[in-house]
Specification:
There is one protein chain. The chain has 250 residues and is of the alpha+beta class. It folds into three domains: 2-73, Uridine Diphospho-n-acetylenolpyruvylglucosamine Reductase, domain 2; 78-110 and 121-190, Uridine Diphospho-n-acetylenolpyruvylglucosamine Reductase, domain 3; 200-249, no CATH class. Helices cover 22% and strands 28% of the residues. The protein has helices at residues 34-47, 98-107, 200-208, 229-249, and strands at 2-4, 6-7, 9-10, 24-31, 50-54, 65-73, 78-83, 87-93, 132-133, 136-137, 142-149, 155-159, 180-190. A five-stranded antiparallel sheet has the order 7-8-13-11-12. Strands 1-4-6-5 form a four-stranded mixed sheet, with helices on one face. A two-stranded antiparallel sheet has the order 2-3. Mean pLDDT is 83; it is low at 5-10, 213-226 and 244-250.
Amino acid sequence: MSSAAENGQNDAPYLKNTLRLRSQAARVATASSTEDISRATRIATDAGLALVPLGEGSNVVLPEHLNALVVAIKSMGIKLLKDDGRRVRVRVAAGENWHTFVRWSVENGLYGLENLALIPGTVGAAPVQNIGAYGVEVRDRVVGVEVVSMASGEVAYLDNQACGFAYRTSIFKDMARREWIIASVDFQLDREALVQRDYPALSRATARYRGHPPRRDGGGYQSSWGASAGSRRENLTRAVFLKIRWSRAR
């Protein structure tokens, strides 16, 4: 774990955020593992500072000066936990980019998250507000989360029910927002591609392209990076849907 401390003068770097606000914290620590997060909690306690986790800084409004130790979550990795031939359980580090993980799942024949493509942020941020799009919410696929207590640094595990998921919220966003830092998330994905396309806009989009094969590279969505995020999500899900139909038709 690397850190920048306040030594007479704040030499901590400006905090990365998508709004490009100039914001500096009293201290900044980079956490590349669950153990790093635990150590950061102890450093914050010893320094008498509040602890603030930060992923990619998307959709957050940061003050110019933040009297806290900011933990930049940079942990990476995807680990296979279980595979029964029908369903696969994977553990994903909180620092992984969300859309990169969704693409990885589709490219590896693991389905259930394709409707949530192109939502900004990290995997660790996804359960906080129970991200959702096109009739699918992340809680539908979360088995549980590995968390670190901000008070003690101890590691715990909360199953899906304990996360208190509701529409665009969870315990991490409300009463327990200052209690836990998410270190990794366990997802259950399907081998069979049963794409959820009941959402009206998505249903219309897929209907227009029935019978047309996706690109041979298995993508079908990379050519549309110039489109809006909503359109790109439709394109990715449509590509998955077309891939299913085309494989069944052959």
